């Protein structure tokens, strides 16, 4: 595509993010730091300040406990209205030389995965990839209010690479202190309130009993498993969900396997017909779609707002569990009435630290979308129990 390259270099100075040739620091790094962790006696997990460190080209030491060289520039990021800044809505700070940086981060992204982007207006506009890379000491903190010797730890590292910075062998994995015993499933209940018909009076003043439509008090038990290990789906969530193609006659999924970069995802689903408009298969696909939009188990790339209403089209990705199942059982007869799953097969060997279950991700953002989806089976079912668990509890290579 020689022609389009030539055209780009001729008109490149006009648009944001087209001036690739103007990059003065091709190997620059922007580190989004959490500083002063452990300095607040009431909340030892919290950071007391956040800052952005900029490097022409960082050189990471081979030991995880050694500091790299001091940053070329650094700026404190104000804790506006108490919001943690490394989130999808973006945090902006101005470096001492006037360069303005904004980072858009999906903060639930597990370590080692792409978590967002950082944009700057310098040199006509640049965009970096940001990687979740937590827990390496990087520099002294600018904000010394609580502790004069406060340290900054890496949270996210932004660069032009297609991969996160390397992990030294002595870099603690998130899981090293966790036990291998599995947690009990997280559970939530939901009952549809009984629909009571309001008695109406006839013209003669005699109350006419209205037949109360007693809903079938069917109990539906929904059980979901999630792998604690993540995979990077390099397209949109909608594109992934569209791969769940199902046959309305049999209720089964009929789509082929989904090919990702370095892996293949196999999809399975089945379900019974609830009534003329409702099918259990569709309700479970809906449940997965909505869990993927809300839950921290699924991290979508944050949208980068453009200037004057023009959106910047950064490529979509989703960091999601490598395997997921959901099964709906009718408790009156223990029959499975719906099932959906996907699972990943890797082309090569995996390497890296173990991933253990973060049970905190089983919260209302996980359960509520599932409940709303299976409520589509009302009034056949009006009492729902949703249970979720990691399977396996810990995934190692
Ligand atoms: C510095 O840290 C203190 C304590 O966490 C905080 O109250 C203060 O807002 C920080 N300063 C700035 C400029 O953010
Ligand atoms: C955005 O729009 C405003 C008002 O129309 C204009 O003054 C400003 O220059 C525009 N900014 C850019 C970067 O195009
Ligand atoms: C930009 O993105 C937002 C949110 O996704 C959307 O509502 C809006 O219509 C988009 N604007 C343009 C010009 O594409
Ligand atoms: C719903 O199911 C739960 C668990 O089986 C049970 O404890 C509860 O009484 C049921 N509620 C109704 C209204 O049937």
Automatic annotation (TrEMBL):
Biased composition (Polar residues): 198-216
Top-level taxon: Eukaryota
Protein name as annotated: Uncharacterized protein
Keywords: Signal
Region ranges (Disordered): 163-216
Compositionally biased region (Low complexity): 173-191
Species per Swiss-Prot/TrEMBL record: Hypocrea atroviridis (strain ATCC 20476 / IMI 206040)
Signal peptide stretch: 1-22
């Amino acid at each position: 595509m020689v022609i389009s390259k030539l055209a780009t270099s001729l008109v490149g100075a006009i648009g944001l993010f087209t001036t690739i040739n103007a990059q003065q620091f091709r190997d620059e790094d922007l580190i989004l730091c959490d500083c002063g962790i452990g300095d607040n006696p009431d909340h030892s997990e919290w950071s007391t300040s956040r800052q952005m460190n900029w490097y022409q080209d960082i050189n990471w030491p081979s030991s995880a406990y050694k500091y790299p060289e001091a940053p070329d520039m650094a700026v404190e990021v104000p804790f506006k209205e108490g919001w943690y800044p490394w989130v999808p809505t973006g945090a902006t700070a101005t470096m001492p030389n006037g360069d303005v940086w904004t980072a858009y981060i999906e903060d639930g992204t597990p370590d080692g995965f792409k978590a967002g982007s950082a944009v700057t207006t310098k040199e006509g506009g640049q965009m970096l990839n940001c990687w979740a890379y937590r827990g390496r000491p990087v520099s002294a903190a600018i904000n010394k209010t609580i502790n004069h010797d406060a340290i900054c730890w890496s949270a996210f590292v932004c660069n032009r690479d297609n991969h996160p910075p390397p992990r030294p062998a002595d870099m603690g994995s998130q899981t090293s202190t966790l036990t291998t015993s599995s947690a009990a499933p997280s559970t939530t209940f939901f009952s549809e309130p009984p629909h009571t018909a309001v008695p109406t009076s006839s013209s003669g003043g005699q109350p006419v009993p209205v037949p109360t439509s007693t809903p079938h008090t069917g109990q539906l038990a929904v059980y979901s498993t999630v792998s604690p290990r993540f995979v990077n789906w390099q397209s949109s969530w909608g594109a992934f969900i569209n791969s769940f193609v199902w046959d309305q006659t049999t209720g089964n999924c009929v789509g082929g396997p989904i090919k990702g970069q370095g892996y293949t995802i196999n999809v399975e689903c089945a379900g019974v017909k609830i009534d003329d408009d409702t099918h259990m298969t569709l309700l479970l696909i809906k449940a997965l779609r909505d869990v993927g939009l809300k839950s921290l188990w699924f991290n979508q790339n944050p949208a980068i707002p453009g200037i004057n209403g023009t959106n910047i089209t950064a490529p979509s990705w989703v960091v999601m569990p490598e395997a997921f199942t959901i099964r709906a059982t009718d408790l009156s007869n223990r029959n499975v009435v719906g099932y959906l799953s996907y699972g990943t097969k890797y082309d090569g060997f995996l390497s890296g630290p173990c991933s253990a279950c973060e049970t905190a991700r089983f919260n209302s953002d996980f359960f509520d979308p599932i409940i709303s989806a299976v409520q589509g089976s009302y009034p056949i079912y009006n009492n729902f129990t949703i249970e979720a668990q990691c399977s396996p509890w810990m995934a190692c290579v």
